[in-house]
Design brief:
This protein has 597 residues and is of the alpha+beta class. It contains 14 helices and 18 strands.
Amino acid sequence: MELKSFQKLFQMTKVINSQFEMSEILQVFVDAIAGEITQADLVGFFLKQPDGTFQGYKGNKLPVDITELLIDPREDEFVRDILRNQASDYISDTSVDLRLDQSKRQLLKIKSILGIPVIVENDVFGLVFVHDFGKPMNITQEQMEVTEAFVNMASVAIRNIRMFEQRQLLMEKQQLLLDATKALSESLSVKDVLNTFFYYMRKASGSKDIGIHLYNEKEHTIEPYQLSSENVTVDEWKVKHREVKLTIENDRLLYEVITQKKSAAIEDVYADPRPNHKAFVSFDIRSIMVFPLVAKGSVYGVVAIPSIGKPRKYEASILEFCQSISDATATALSNAQHTETLDHSVNERSIELQHANFKLEGLVRELEHLNELKSDFIATLSHELRTPITAVKGSVDILSKGILGGLNDSQKDLLDIASKSIGRLLDQVNELLDFAKMENGKFELVYTEADFKEIIKESVTIVQSLINKKKLILVVESDAETDTVVSVDKQRILQILLNLLSNAIKFTPPMGVITIKTIFEETVLTVEVHDSGIGIPFEKQKNIFTKFYQANNQINGTGLGLAISKQLIELHGGRIWFESTEGQGSIFKFTLPKGRE
């Protein structure tokens, strides 16, 4: 090969390797062969198609549009020889060598022709044809060799570009998968998950027809769920599915996808016995990809991506990529469905609770009304009872004092019993009146400055006869040495002390001990009433301060004493509690602020 030819080859190689688009490289390629190497009239590059034909792609100049030319090896022996041998071939006289497709010979007025295969990774990527127009081509052996060398260099450039494009495509797929995974993880509702899935799956599959079906494990049926398509509406899609009624029993393809948890792709559905052909005829499906939706180890649905109206070939990389999108979607969709189901249940429960709450509010209002009626009734009844009781008490007192005449011992005993009974009844009426006032919020304290020691002394004096009668020992202890003055409602504090002392006397057996302790601190007074009585059973202790509750039903009373005492102490700003062990006595304690709050 002459130096000049090497220089041309080197220059053209630099030009080709400086280009990054295959279209540009092939245009430089055909122009260089025509103008710099062979000086031929016509140079054309034909690109191999999936069906084995060769479509016109680039040319230097032709009397027809090269992109409209199609070479079919089945009709062109010359091309078949080039493909079989994967080597250049030359026809010096097409009128003698008749292997060339005669229609192409006449169209382009080919007298002689050079054909060279473009081999990329051991496969024919395309074909280059060199010829003159209407005259024999005057080409030397050296020009043929340089052209072949140039084609080989172009093959290397094309291979590099394809590798670069594949790397770019892989990076784009990885980025798309990352974007899809991130978007799906941020999609909280079923609607958002579906919109995100369809958007990314269209990009991944290159298809606009994508359907999601749910698998009913109990019935073995495949139910249409959601669709993204430009060929059919969701309603039409679901109607057709109901007509076909797909199950894993009548569709072997779906059976394999669901039971084996693996994707499948069929380029010709009618040449494959597994799919339900009735369903594919209904939807005019020629090819299909199917992917399982797997969440928590179970298949709960499938994704179907059909090719409508025409067949499609599937590359393994497309299948793998779409499966990755389906895997990411399965978890997101399952979680969103579960969340929305829980939300729906919570909403239903909330509505039920709201209705129940309305009913409770109505009951509360009714109970409040009944409570008001009860308090009013108690107050009215107490007032009505108080007047005749007071009159009876006055009459008994007059008789007891002998104002109306002397009485014998039996009469005096009867009047004494009557007087005590009337006193107890009057105390109970007063308790009911106090309770009614507290319930209606009409109760007010009357504060005065009082010596607490004097209040205790007065309470002891009142119960002293009961203490003596039952032969009890009453002890009063106080840590105060100087100021024992407090600001309280004296009569109510006396009422509380009398209530606690009366209870202690009732529940303490003869010869028992009752102790009153007072502890004066800087701002707080603590009072304790100890008894050595029968104590309070544990199961009854929680109800001790409940209105109308009596720990011992054999003891007469209203059951309001402790409840009223608690309210009175709390109105003063203090608190009351107790400690008790059955059979060992009780200690009731309460605190009062020394000054008025």
